[in-house]
Design goal:
single chain, TorD-like, 61% helix
Length: 238
Amino acid sequence: MSALPVQGGLNWGAKMTGNENILFKKDEAVSDAEIDRAVYRLLAAFYNYNPDKNFLEALLNLSAEDVAEEKIADALKSISEYARKAVDSEEMITELKRDWTRLFRGVSPDYGAKPPYEQLFMKSASLELISELAQEYICNGFAEYMEINNRHDYLGTELSYAAHLASLRITALETGNFEEYVKYQEMFDVFVRKHLSGWAEIFCKDAEKYATTDFYKGVLKFTALTITTEGVSDEFLF
């Protein structure tokens, strides 16, 4: 949670809870949550959608100009520059589709990377992992996982759920429910730390060896850099 000294800001947390020790800027919390939602939605899209012309067209306005972290900016540049070149090239789009399959579908150990499922990378993952994730998704209204049509522990599914939790933070802030905001902020932090930070970076570094396009090399770097930071909002200033 972005608990900050109030200097001309809104002491909203204290107003909501009656606790004068809670100093909180609502506008900054909304901005942080919106950035988290946008970033995790973008990341999830890379894993959940086999790229086509429409997908690339949606990325044409992706910009790294205002991103503070140089390595993240470089990764975004790789993605956006490749998208601009490939959007009108059937040959390049076909190569992107091949790369997406090679990296994320787990077709064969001889063909590409180990597929991005948490249970395959985490030795500590229990046999109940899938049912635990399903219960959490249902309890927090994450119906989108049924549309993704993949395992509950698939990287794209987990990234989508992180974006969903960011949306719940925004809703809580907009409706003035400070307790709900704190709950979903903590849930977001715990989920990213427990279900993403421990393995996704390992997957990304391994998969990068199999990537043949600068587009997906950028995606993998972008993913690894995002989930290893302590929240993404401080790294993105757009």
